[in-house]
Amino acid sequence: MKQLNLEQMKSIQPLFTFVKNTLVDTCIRKNIGKVWADDDIHPNCVQVFVGDFCFLAGDSDNEQAVDLIKNILLNYPKNNCFMVAENQKWEHLIEAEYGVHCHKVSRYSTKNNVQFDHYQLRKFVNQLPKGYRLAKIDSDLYNRALQEDWSRDFCVNFRDFEDFSKNGLGIVITYGKELVGGASSYIATEDTLEVEIAVKENYRHRGFATICAAQLILQALSRGMYPSWDAANLISFKTAEKLGYELDQEYTAFVVDLVV
User: Fold this and answer.
1) CA distance linking residue 183 with residue 53, whole number of Å
2) CB atoms within 10 A of CB 210
3) Exposed/middle/buried for residue 90 (C-beta within 10 Å: 0-12, 13-18, 19+)
4) Measured at the alpha carbon of residue 121, what is the angle toward residues 117 and 127, in degrees to the nearest 5?
């Protein structure tokens, strides 16, 4: 297998039209993440590895296709990941390799075909209850977010706070000294960010996800960035709908337990 450089990555973009996910495009255009292939000159089967996601495309009958599926074990620091494959042949290879250590889920890519309703977004933001504070992620909040599992993805894909401050964007809700929810850029480029939302378990079902997501969208738009939303489940998709998104594509992903 060969790891591709930025120039080589551009040649594989046509292989990934099967899924409308900004993570793939960001990885290929901006070299955020890693790309592996059977060949670095004429790739036939390819793996795009970015954040918590592994995308597989190309010739699943290639003798190195299974090696790409196994490759994630060598290059991924967490205990599980999402694998998204081009077709059922790739999916069968994933299931054959990981067996009971993987299961299918549905995810929902979204789009916004009209301008966001800024007035409605501000109405959501104004629903923040008394005693809670809405704040932009600064260096202190950046470090605090990284200390807890539920909030790490707000910042974990950036090298450090300087990188996050320059390229990312995040909004959190605090209660006293406690971080209770937030919406942030899972990854970001100069014109796009991928929305990441999480709320601490004891504070869910209070509208906090909607509030901080609305503020993040407003902040992103003010910077000329499109806030892309790939919903992990129907609850996330319903929140996205409320904020102005509509369904673009439902697709299958595998949650893979890498501790096998």
Assistant:
1) 19
2) 20
3) buried
4) 150
| Tokens (6 digits) for 225 | 């960035």
Confidence grade of residue 73 (pLDDT, cut at 50, 70, 90): low
Q: Look at the block and give the residue holding tokens 């992990």.
A: 232
CB-based contact 168:223 (threshold 8 Å): no
**Helices 88-98, 65-75: inter-axial angle, 10-degree rounding:** 50
> How large a percentage of the chain has pLDDT more than 70?
97
DSSP string, 54-107: EEEEE-TTSTTHHHHHHHHHHH--SSEEEEEESSHHHHHHHHHHHGGGEEEEEE
Q: What is the pLDDT of residues 230-260, one digit of tens each?
A: 999 999 999 999 999 999 999 999 999 876 5
Which pLDDT score is estimated for 111?
92
- What pTM did the predictor assign? 0.91
Quote the strand ranges of 112-162, DSSP E.
133-136
Answer whether residue 76 shows pLDDT above 80: no
